[in-house]
Specification:
By secondary structure, the chain is mainly α. It has 7 helices and 2 strands, in the order αααββαααα. 50% of the residues lie in helices and 5% in strands.
Length: 150
């Protein structure tokens, strides 16, 4: 299974926010630090706000921050939510539905079970597991800040 760029960026943005504790982070600053498109990161941030993991504060001194403690954010729940519409195979919800084997195929059940095991394995880890004590990540995202408008 391969995560979409949307999910990948969602996890990276959450890690960035988790490093900041209660500080606000702008999408521009995070996009610069992560070396990604500001427009794409904006869409990802909106999905995280809608998923109730991130709070968005408007205005001149606004930005994003985690809505709940990092240890309360299970990675599997985040990925499951962000991966909606990304079917593993054609016969899964969100897939093309074009498979001539569907009426007699048992593969769908096996793949659904494997996908569920993937999400459950991710749920065994929290956002805090990714950032706590991770000096390398802290150095990359916080200690050596790039200019926001480079």
């Amino acid at each position: 299974m391969r995560l979409t760029l949307h999910s990948d960026l969602g996890l990276r943005l959450l890690m960035h926010l988790a490093l900041l504790d209660d500080e606000l982070l702008t999408i521009s600053d995070s996009a610069a630090q992560l070396s990604v498109s500001r427009n794409h990161l904006t869409k990802v941030a909106l999905a995280l706000v809608q998923g109730d993991w991130v709070a968005s504060h408007r205005g001149r001194n606004g930005g994003l921050q985690l809505k709940k403690p990092a240890q309360d954010i299970a990675l599997g729940q985040v990925v499951r939510e962000l991966e909606t519409g990304s079917a593993l195979v054609a016969c899964f919800p969100g897939g093309s539905g074009l498979c001539v084997l569907s009426p007699a195929c048992r593969l769908k059940q096996v793949l659904a079970q494997a996908q569920e095991a993937f999400f459950e394995a991710l749920n065994g880890h929290s956002l805090a597991d990714l950032v706590q004590g991770n000096a390398g990540l802290r150095a990359l995202l916080l200690d050596a800040k790039k200019p926001a408008h480079a």
